[in-house]
């Protein structure tokens, strides 16, 4: 147990192989570009670019997807700062002070500080990963079906209660995802379930088609609404060199919020959105000048940027150690990884340690590369942002179809893709959170198998809950996560009464 | 009243799912009811949540659905329907005339619809170059077989 320096060094040697360095550069660049598109975030970036990982060896594919992921996180902040349109939840906090800075003519400095903050947050999280991942994987080795079932249950309830908005809608979204996961041949008994004698359905609904449909086709359709309203803003980027004073203002916020973001990222269900919001409000409370927040305070940009990038690295811990994705984007990555024939979980650390550590080392290299890309090539990136979405959205649609075709070479998937695109559009319009559905589709099968195995082993459901200290703790956490929104609502009401 | 359509739809879907669940064939191996426990729990949970959702929407039944209304303003309905039609044509052509040509046609069509007719040279150029690059990288570099 503990830190495994030998594997870290070996992983580093693999990560700096030319092919992997090339993938880091390509992934980082493509991720940044898609992440910069108004309205599109990391989940879309990974979903659309999944097909390029086919035929690669799993380590390289994992490296590529991870770089696309945090490339899109970097890119998301670019569009938040420059045009005030965050690509997804985790980039929202960057608009609070980033956009006002850009309006004051400090766009260049805002971009630089956001890149540096992301780097610092990311590096913190990588160190955290190295320290925490192996013990956690060793701990998860003890998990049986009961523990896994309750872990899935907790993750799903956490993602529902933490997804901003209506909890009932979140639970409906989750249920639909679970319903979809039950389609196909039941693995334990061979019974055909909900297949309606359609042969293609006997293997179940391909979750990657669901993902691409909802995150790519649905998002593009949804963005059609605002496609003519996006105005082009010609803005002076200004100097990209930050001043010594700005550095002094931001160094502590960046250092403080890296660990905060990392720990939130490790929690299943909570991701970059929560991390960045929490960091923003923490920093505002700590600040001597909270009135400056929202008007272009540089520390109000640095804090959430450090935090959300740390969270995105932290989110890989539950994904790799337990096979439980903590957010929409990591769920997409899990889907793609499973497709490549890998089973993330504690055994991954035993059987393929070099793969895990190569990934971690590649994150380190990738973060440094992205900072260079985002600071030195700021002019080029701003010009890409000028490329009208009217051209880029059609390209995303085409990529979605090509990706779907390469999954199974079946035309029926095109129709399924469109159906899920329209479902995704409907969910966006009616304010249904998407992440619970995606997560449920992907973990649903495993969840059911563990549910049934644990019932068989423990005789009835009550015994499943009290099977071990871990199951009791997970049950309590599940109940707490469901009660949490009610508690917050009650606090808010009380606050309103007092004022 | 439009607000009530979605919850009613979910209730309907929930009922259908539960009915289908209880009509699932029994397993010949192991617990005969094994395949239906999990779907039954989800189905009933979906039904319960949809009923709560119906009550929530009933309370708000007078309010307008701003986002849904936006869908029917400006070019949006045209863009979505035109995209769907093009997707349909693409699906029809894809395996018949091959990846490269069908993608060029699909992308050109999409760009004409979304980006506008005025920039036709740019649209065609982008469509041809992008289709060729994707075809080349998938078929040649990644060895993915495309029609």
UniProtKB/TrEMBL annotation, chain A:
Keywords assigned by UniProt, alphabetized: Membrane, Transmembrane, Transmembrane helix
UniProt signal peptide: none
Transmembrane segments: 21-40, 46-72, 110-133, 145-164, 171-187, 207-225, 260-280, 315-342, 363-385, 391-407, 414-444, 464-487
Domain DUF112: 21-439
Superkingdom: Bacteria
Protein's recorded name: Tripartite tricarboxylate transporter TctA
UniProtKB/TrEMBL annotation, chain B:
Top-rank taxon, per record: Bacteria
TM segment ranges: 7-24, 36-55, 76-93, 99-116, 123-139
Domain DUF1468, chain residue ranges per copy: 8-147
Any one Pfam family match given in the protein's UniProt record, by short name: TctB
Record flagged with keyword Transmembrane helix: yes
Keywords associated with the record: Membrane, Transmembrane, Transmembrane helix
Keyword Transcription: no
Name of the protein this chain belongs to: DUF1468 domain-containing protein
Originating organism: Lentibacillus populi
């Amino acid at each position: 147990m503990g830190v495994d320096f030998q594997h870290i060094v070996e992983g580093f040697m693999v990560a700096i192989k030319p092919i992997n360095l090339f993938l880091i550069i390509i992934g980082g660049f493509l991720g940044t570009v898609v992440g910069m598109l108004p309205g599109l975030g990391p989940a879309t970036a990974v979903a659309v670019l999944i097909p390029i990982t086919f035929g690669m060896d799993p380590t390289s594919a994992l490296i590529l997807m991870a770089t696309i992921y945090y490339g899109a996180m970097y890119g998301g902040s670019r569009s938040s700062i420059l045009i005030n349109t965050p690509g997804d939840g985790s980039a929202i906090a960057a608009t609070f002070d980033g956009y006002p800075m850009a309006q004051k003519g400090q766009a260049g400095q805002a971009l630089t500080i956001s890149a540096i903050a992301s780097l610092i947050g990311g590096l913190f999280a990588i160190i955290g990963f190295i320290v925490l991942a192996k013990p956690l994987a060793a701990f998860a080795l003890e998990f049986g079906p009961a523990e896994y079932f309750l872990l899935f249950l907790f993750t799903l309830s956490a993602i529902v209660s933490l997804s901003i908005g209506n909890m009932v809608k979140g639970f409906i979204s989750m249920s639909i995802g679970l319903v979809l996961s039950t389609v196909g041949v039941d693995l334990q008994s061979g019974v055909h379930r909900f297949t309606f004698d359609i042969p293609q359905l006997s293997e179940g609904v391909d979750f990657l088609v669901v993902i691409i449909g909802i995150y790519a086709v649905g998002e593009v359709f949804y963005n059609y609404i605002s496609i003519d309203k996006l105005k082009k803003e010609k803005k002076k980027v200004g100097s990209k060199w930050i001043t010594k004073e700005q550095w002094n203002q931001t160094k502590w916020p960046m250092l403080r919020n890296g660990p905060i973001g990392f720990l939130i990222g490790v929690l299943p269900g909570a991701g970059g959105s929560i991390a960045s919001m929490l960091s923003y409000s923490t920093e505002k409370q700590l600040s001597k000048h909270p009135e400056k927040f929202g008007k272009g305070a540089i520390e109000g940009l640095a804090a959430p940027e450090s935090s959300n990038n740390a969270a995105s690295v932290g989110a890989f811990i539950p994904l790799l150690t337990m096979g439980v994705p903590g957010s929409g984007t990591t769920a997409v990555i899990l889907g793609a990884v499973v497709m490549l024939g890998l089973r993330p979980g504690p055994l991954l650390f035993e059987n393929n340690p070099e793969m895990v550590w190569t990934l971690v080392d590649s994150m380190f290299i990738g973060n440094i590369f992205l900072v260079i890309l985002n600071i030195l090539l700021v002019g080029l990136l701003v010009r890409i942002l000028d490329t009208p979405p009217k051209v880029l959205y059609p390209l995303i649609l085409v990529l979605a179809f090509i990706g779907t075709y390469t999954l199974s070479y079946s035309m029926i998937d095109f129709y399924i893709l469109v159906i899920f695109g329209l479902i995704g559009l409907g969910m966006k319009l009616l304010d249904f959170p998407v992440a619970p559905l995606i997560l449920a589709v992907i973990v649903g099968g495993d969840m059911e198998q563990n549910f049934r195995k644990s019932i068989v082993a423990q005789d009835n459901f009550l015994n499943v809950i009290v099977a071990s200290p871990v199951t009791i703790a997970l049950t309590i956490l599940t109940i707490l996560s469901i009660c949490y929104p009610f508690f917050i609502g009650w606090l808010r009401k009380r606050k309103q009464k007092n004022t | 009243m439009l607000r009530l359509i979605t919850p009613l739809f979910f209730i309907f879907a929930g009922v259908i799912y539960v009915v289908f669940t209880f009509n699932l064939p029994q397993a010949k191996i192991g617990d005969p009811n094994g395949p239906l426990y999990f779907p039954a729990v989800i189905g009933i949970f979906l039904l319960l949540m949809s009923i709560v959702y119906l009550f929530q929407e009933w309370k708000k039944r007078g309010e307008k659905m701003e986002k849904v209304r936006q869908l029917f303003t400006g070019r949006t309905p045209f863009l979505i329907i035109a995209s769907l039609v093009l997707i349909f044509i693409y699906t029809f052509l894809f395996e018949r005339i091959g990846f490269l040509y069908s993608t060029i046609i699909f992308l050109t069509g999409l760009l004409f619809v979304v980006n506008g007719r005025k920039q036709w040279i740019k649209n065609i150029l982008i469509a041809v170059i992008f289709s060729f690059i994707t075809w080349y990288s998938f078929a040649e570099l990644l060895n993915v077989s495309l029609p």
